[in-house]
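Changelog-adjacent note: as of this version, every example in the card shows the full chain rather than a window. The one below runs 205 residues end to end.
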Amino acid sequence: MQDKGMLKLFCYVDESGQDTFAQPDRDKIFIVGVVTLTGDQDEFWRLCESYESASKKGIFKWSKAQHQTRMRFLRLIFADDRFEGALRYSIFHSITKKQFQEATILTIARAIKSTNVGEVKTRNPEIYVDGLSKENRRKWGAALKGQGISGHTMHGIPKDENHPLIRLADTIAGFVRDCVEINSEEFRTLELRGKESGTLIEVKQ
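Full-length structure tokens:
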């Protein structure tokens, strides 16, 4: 039986911005998106799929989805209080390509720690990372332990696998990147909506 206040935590992780480091004259930006959820993961899986269908975004990742459909999808997510406190991200500018993994691990650790608020504590996080190799699962697991995370299990999700919660992490990373790079009123308004609803949370470095 699960202890009162101790909730099993699930994390889904993806990144955006790696391409900016391959372009010498472009401002560098690296975004890590982390979805942190407790409870029935099948329910969240179905919920994301239903919003992907309703918004007509479909299974496309952020960079490949049509603009209006992906924005419509996020409006549905931000309006659903079941995602309150679930969507976290970090922004990095002053790093190198060799530091991508370190930045992602740091964001995961801080995202997990930030879910432990008040009397509610999380335990034994299951961490799913887009494209994480078997070798890196061990390395990342050890690195997270060094960051004070224990009882966790690392999972790699093959590239382009049909996983709606990884797609949600990709959506958050892609959206935040566009908020920084495009900085239009449309993006600012939706970003503010996500933050005011308590759904979208920046994990400060």
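Structural remarks: The chain has a mean pLDDT of 93.
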